[in-house]
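Lab notebook, bench 4. The sequencing result for the construct came back, and we need a structural model before the next group meeting so we can plan mutations. Quick request posted to the team channel:

Model the 3D structure of this chain.
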Amino acid sequence: MCGCRGSVGQVTIWIDPPAWPAHGRLWSHLVSDTSYDELHEFAAAQGIPRRGFEGDHYDVPEERYAALVAAGAREVGGRELVRLLQASGLRVQKRRHEKVIASVPDASWLPPGSRADVIASRQENPPSHTVVVRLALFRGDDVLVLDRSDGGGPDLPSAPVGDATPAQALDLLHRVVTGVDAPPDLRLIGYVRNVVQQPDDDYPWPTPSAAFTVWQREVGPDATVLAGRWLQPADQAAQLGTRHWWPLLEDGPRA
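Done. Here's the predicted structure in token form:
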């Protein structure tokens, strides 16, 4: 293990050689095989911006490599780094054109030892393990919400997939909310993925993975709906900020 000491204490941080080309330079991956908190603490201490975090690692440019090794990050080959990350349980899988924007180990709303990932996506199709679809309908900057039947406050309109396909479930949801079939401009913007290795008796979703997708559409200022109410930007964070999907919409409609 790394055994680096100082302001960040003893940590287990690993880095692979700068061999990944992007933006006209080479990049390394910086990971922890212990916890994301440890990784964030080490990165912050070395002046690495949080925007470099990619869900389970930091991308760092080649000119930072020597300084990070000197600070205690242990050098390891790229394949071994992936193996270490997978063995730690901290590896976050994603598809091309996807970015992990949040990851919650030991998520309190899931069985012990589980993780929830929030993944922004530019894929056209949802992940194969989609179990729920949600509709983020925007009228300008206002978003449509429904009040949950369990008294849990406002949420995006949603529907379980069940025996249907995600496209069928989404079309039905759109018709219930707007009265018309889902148009082609509905766009997947991301999903929350539950990663549950040891479900308890009350856990209702497939394991080890279940995805809760969010689809976006913008409508005109005169658009009407059959259900729900429009929530203005000033109220959105306060009323929706605890929803697991909120990081996907935190900055408003996604371009």
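Confidence is low (pLDDT under 50) at residues 1-9.
Will bring this to the meeting.
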